[in-house]
Each structure stands twice: as C-alpha cells, then as structure tokens.
Design goal:
Two copies of one chain form a homodimer. Chain A is mostly helical. Helix content of chain A is about 75%, strand content about 0%. Chain A has ten helices and no strands. The longest helix of chain A is centred in the middle third of the chain and has 28 residues, at about 130-155. The radius of gyration of chain A is 19 Å and the shape is elongated. At the A-B interface, helix 8, helix 9 and helix 10 of A face helix 8, helix 9 and helix 10 of B. The structure holds a DNA duplex.
DNA sequence: TTCCTGTGAGCGAGCGCTCATTCATATAGC
DNA sequence: GCTATATGAATGAGCGCTCGCTCACAGGAA
C-alpha cells in the first residue's frame, strides 16, 4: 500500500515542507467544521483564518485559493474513510462472516463520519474540475476495495458466486447503502439504531448472493 | 390524491394569480438549468432574469428572494418525480412482476431526471430551514409510495413476505438505488446501459425477498 | 544583513435586492 | 368614438455591502 500524499500538488509560498503540512492541517481542521455547519460558499476565508487562529494573510501563504482548502478537506476525509475500510479488511478472514464484518466496520465508519461524507456529496461540485476528478477517483478507489474484498471472499466461499459485472455493482451498492445512512440520517436515525440498521442491511446484502448459491 | 400547490406560500407582489403561475414557471425553467450548470451560489439573480427574458426587477415581483426560486425549483422537481412514480404504480398489477415493473419505471424516471435529482442533493442545504424541511417531506412522501406499493404486493404474492420494519427499509433502498444511478453516473454510465442497470438491480432487489419465501 | 514566516488594512469586483419611473392596458365619463 | 384617469406589470441604474485575495511591512532567527 503506497502512501501517496495527494496534497503536495497544492501550491504554497512557504518553503519548509513540514511547516506546510502542520499549518495546512490546522487550517483544514478549522475549515471542515465551518463547511459542515454553514456550507462552503457561506463560509468566508476570514472565518476560516480566525477559527484556525491565523490571520487571513497566513492562510494565503499555505493555500492559493479557497477552493484549494476545500480540496484538501475532501482529500483528508476520503483518506480517513479509506484508512478505516482497509483496516477492517486487513483483519478479516474469508467467507461469509468476513463480508458481514467488513460491512459492519464500513457502516460504522459512515456513521462516525456522517457529516463529512455529506459534505463531499454537497460540495464536490464547487471544486475546480481537475480536483473534482481527483475526488471522484478517491470515491472509485474506495469502491474498488470492496470489489477486491468481494472477489477474495467469493474465492474462499463456495456459497458466494458472482459474475464479474455483478461483483462491481454489488460493491457500489454496499458503498451507497453506507452513504444512505448519512444522507437519510434525518429519517433513519430516528427510526433505527445504527446497530439495527447494520444488521438489517447486512442481511439484505448477503441476500444478494443467496440466490446465486452453487 | 389531492393536488396541493405548495408554491402558493411563496410571497409575490403581483395580484393576478394566473400570471404569477405562468411567470414563475418561466423563471424557474430558466433557473433550474443555470443551477444545474453552475450551482446555486455561482448563479446570479441577473443571469436568471436574463435567461428567463425578464429584467432583474421583474424577478423580484414574483419571488422575494433567490432562495425562494431554488425552493420552487426543488418543489417542481419532486412533483415531477412523484407524478412519474404514481403513474407507474396506478397501472401496475399485483405480485412480483408488478414490483419489477414499478422499479423499472422509477429507475427510468431517475435516469431522465438525473441532473435534477443531483441538484436536490447538492443544494437542499442552501435553503432556509423551513423549506429544507418541506423538501425532506417530499423525499419521504415519495419513499412512502414505495412502502405502500410493497405492502400491496406482499399481500397479493405469497412469495413476498416482509416484516413491517424491513418493508420501510426496502423502500428506502429502492429509492436510493435509483438515485445512485444519478450520482454515480460518471462511472456507471460508462459501464452499464440503463437497461442493464435496471435488470441487474431489479434482480438484486427481488433477491431481498427471495430469502423470505414462505 | 538576509531570509522567511506572519500580519491585517485595503482593494475592487461583484453580489442580492430596491425603488423611482415608464408604459400598456382597462375603465369611466361624456 | 374619444379623452382622461387609474392600475399594476415591467424596468434597470444604483445602493450598501461582502467577498476573495494582495501586498507592504513587522518580527525574529541565523
């Protein structure tokens, strides 16, 4: 697993790379909360600066534009989701139970990161197109993790058989059903506990494969 | 089925109600395309006015604020989705095939209205909260249509049995898998034709119930 | 002195929205 | 039919203000 730092394409005025990293993290940590609370467009660069404890000038030492801040926010959200998913997968065995376990962990990641995932849905369109593309690549890479996991599981469990094409779609479905908890929280959250939601959806997802039993 | 006109809560300066209806439709027709192309915040009221063929002053004869325009846009989108779904349901028979037919029609609505559904996901948060609430009510009412349809079908087909709670979740799942085609179009659209997507997802959705066969 | 990070007053483009005014049409009086 | 009056829809220059971003300068470490 290569550790790409996708944020180093963001231009800065400051020479010391370590300082750049630290300051950027401070700034994005402040920005993400503002973006969640008020949205990207209604958050001003001054608000970001003061929430991070800097002057407006300093922010522009580390980012060339407000959009760059949003991009780094999106990157770090996806990085954290990916971290959670890969962690869950690395410690999973094979077969049906492994799949259930991975789904559970992933759904808990979605639960924990609700606001952040929602933010990506709402504000990706506000990014310049070259970075919009990057964000979609991230989304796709995460989906790809589930494709691999499903393939691995299908190999080690005779009960699970899927055509190549269905396998991809199944992965997308799992990802989206996790997201569904975040963007229908206003309803689902009042009617199910997250544990129940996971239980019910896991049954349904495993049901996708039940019909294909050898 | 009562025909509510939810837009009459939007204040206007103009007396003639029929004219208000016509002008508002002209304005929102222009606005929705701009919102889709550039987003709500990057669209200016002047652009809306000129795209609709009016002066900026006229727009404010018919709407009190830019947010009011967005609200009416969201209302009309949901109204059209609901029209499509109810039409599909009214001509459906009972049983398994009816469900497949309804899913097919609904997914085609999502396909046709991709851009519009995406817009709602992205811009609902830009609405004042009392109208945000209305939009979520619309979303929930549409989901409710599927709950009813599933309940009706479960009654007329012994093969389909669902607990009350699972039935609600199944309805949400169907709605979201339709939306998934819209917000993953950038990927799915290049790998599946809509007809194939419908076929595959229908199998999966019907599979939700297969495990519960009496 | 030199180099680099940090500052915040200031810039000017652009925003949503207003309101004094114009103009087309409907009505009334004769 | 003709003119005078009233109505209300349509106009667009302009207001007040906010925003993202810049840049001349300060501070301090080497």
């Amino acid at each position: 697993m290569e550790e790409l730092n996708r944020t180093k394409d963001i231009p800065t005025q400051v020479k010391d790379p370590e300082l750049v990293d630290r300051r950027r993290r401070q700034i994005t940590d402040a920005a993400v909360q503002l973006f969640i609370d008020k949205g990207f467009h209604k958050t001003t660069t001054r608000q970001i600066a003061s929430a991070a404890g800097f002057s407006i000038g300093s922010v522009y030492e580390y980012f060339a534009s407000k959009e760059d801040i949003l991009y780094m926010v999106c990157e770090s959200i996806h990085a954290e989701v990916e971290r959670g998913v890969t962690a869950a997968m690395s410690q999973a065995a094979g077969g049906r139970d492994a799949l259930a376990k991975i789904i559970q962990e992933y759904f808990m990641v979605c639960h924990r990161m609700s606001d952040f995932i929602l933010l990506i849905y709402q504000e990706t369109q506000s990014l310049p197109s070259q970075w919009q593309k990057r964000v979609l690549e991230n989304e796709l890479r995460i989906t790809g993790l589930f494709v691999e996991a499903l393939a691995g599981i299908a190999n080690s469990d005779d009960q699970i058989k899927l055509a190549e094409s269905n396998l991809e779609l199944a992965a997308h479905n799992i990802v989206i059903l996790g997201h569904m908890w975040t963007f229908r929280r206003w309803y689902l959250g009042h009617h199910y506990r997250i544990e129940d939601y996971i239980q019910l959806q896991t049954d349904i997802i495993l049901g996708m494969f039940a019909g294909k039993t050898k």
